[in-house]
Write a structure and sequence with these properties.
The chain is about 30% helix and about 25% strand. By secondary structure, the protein is an alpha/beta fold. The structure holds zinc ion. The site of zinc ion has 6 residues, from loops.
């Protein structure tokens, strides 16, 4: 298993290493990025005075709106150097283009190489890739490049297509899956309906992307348990985004995604852009290292996480990120309680008769948040509204309104205008 040497050093040595890399990044931005050049000038920032990670707080944060409204100003290279065009969803609906050079693709490969190594992946492993490689997504490409660099086997099946997934498992005997975790219960359902002995298949682990599988104390959440109760495979959570071009992936200990100091500087900020202490939730704010085309400085991701600094049993001393507890813009103030949609998803996932759902949020006459859950029910035995509300009160202390629909109607609502991902949260505030 490959561990970059820096990850085994002390946190203070890691900090010094990152500060050295920061000193390389700042002049690059000042010279090549129209956005950051203007930002430094406007705020009278002399980059030679930014020497430590603490000094970073003197530089204003970069927001998703900045990236959306001034995308071209972030580009640091001539357009001829761009190899790959990726898009990510912007705040205003229009996708934001993320350009990558040859060197950025190499960096992406290295990132997933060390990230998969963290999850114990070795050359002899074979992974079935159940996420898309095209549609301008970065993730599938990144996993492919990383596994290739590791020398592992890759079966590119893509998302959905349960029959092809099992045919591939039977034919090529992969020992790992890369998938959104909510797809695994669908695979299990398919296997059970078609009498496929998935439990004795070659699959032993899954790298889970895009959705949390753990609670804040690292025990498996409802989705994580739903998978492992039926199928005894090891789950590894990985957290990444296009803007970061970097992954935080769990090791065997399953105690949060490891930070890779060569790739990224990470801060956890409160509502006033000040660092939070360990044990407090903070917005993940990142500074990319080694990115050529579109490097970012203090970019606020909108994701809220806890972070952990104690050394890990795997030998890495790098900090670890807990599961994303929610998106900052989606924070709800409901009957005096602060909530994030994933906590609501977690309760809904526990209720067997609810097969799909949409959460709609609006502002009521009192100016506070109102939550309406539209739940799709299938054939499984229905549960009363009261039982569901009791579940909510037990887990979250409050119970939102719930209305039942046919699951097909919910499915239609979840995929308007050919969306790539299902819509589960509609914000009418
Ligand atoms: Zn570890």
């Amino acid at each position: 298993m490959y561990i970059p040497e820096i990850e085994t050093r002390s946190l203070s040595e890691i900090k010094l290493f990152q500060e050295k890399r920061l000193k390389e990044l700042l002049p690059y931005l000042e010279e090549h990025s129209a956005f950051y050049k203007a930002l430094f000038k406007k705020n009278r920032i002399d980059i030679s005075e930014i020497n430590t990670l603490e000094d970073l707080t003197r530089i204003p944060v970069t927001t998703k709106d900045d990236l959306q409204s001034r995308t071209d100003d972030f580009l640091c290279v001539d357009k001829r150097k761009i190899i790959d065009y990726v898009t990510t969803s912007g705040t205003l609906g229009e996708p934001v283009t993320f350009a990558m050079t040859n060197s950025d693709l190499d960096r992406l490969a290295y990132n997933e190489y060390i990230s998969f190594s963290c999850a114990g992946v070795e050359e002899e492993d074979v992974f079935q890739l159940m996420v898309t490689m095209d549609k301008r997504f970065m993730a599938g490409l990144a996993y492919y490049l990383g596994l290739r660099k590791l020398g592992a086997g890759i079966i590119r099946v893509g998302p959905g297509l349960q029959e092809l997934q099992f045919e591939s498992i039977r034919r090529y005997n992969p020992n790992g899956l890369i998938t959104v975790p909510s797809f695994i219960p669908k695979l299990i359902d398919y296997a059970e309906q078609n009498e496929i002995d998935y439990k004795s298949s070659s699959v032993k682990k899954a790298v889970c992307i895009g959705e949390p599988i753990r609670n804040n104390d690292f025990t498996l959440n409802t989705l994580g348990k739903k998978i492992t109760d039926k199928w005894d495979i090891q789950l590894y959570s990985t957290y990444a985004s296009t803007e970061m071009g970097t992954a935080f992936t769990e090791c065997d200990a399953g105690k949060g995604g490891h930070h890779h100091p060569e790739m990224i500087i990470v801060e956890f900020l409160d509502e006033n852009d000040q660092p939070v202490a360990e044990g407090e939730p903070g917005e993940v704010t990142i500074t990319t290292l080694g990115v050529e085309a579109m490097p970012l400085l203090r970019f606020k991701t909108g994701d809220i996480c806890y972070h952990h600094t104690e050394p890990c049993s795997c030998g890495r001393n790098t900090i670890r990120l807990g599961p994303v507890i929610g998106r900052k813009q989606q924070m709800l103030k409901f009957k005096g309680t602060t909530l994030f949609p994933p906590a609501i998803y977690d309760v809904l996932n526990e209720i067997e008769c609810i097969e799909n759902y949409i959460i709609e949020v609006s502002t009521n006459d009192l100016g506070t948040d109102e939550i309406l859950i539209k739940a799709g029910c299938g054939q499984k035995k229905p549960v009363s509204e009261k039982t569901i509300k009791d579940h909510f009160r037990a887990k979250l202390r409050v119970a939102p309104e719930i209305v039942f629909y046919d699951k097909k109607e919910i499915l239609k609502l979840q995929f308007p205008n050919n969306n790539r991902k299902p819509v589960t949260f509609i914000d009418n505030r």
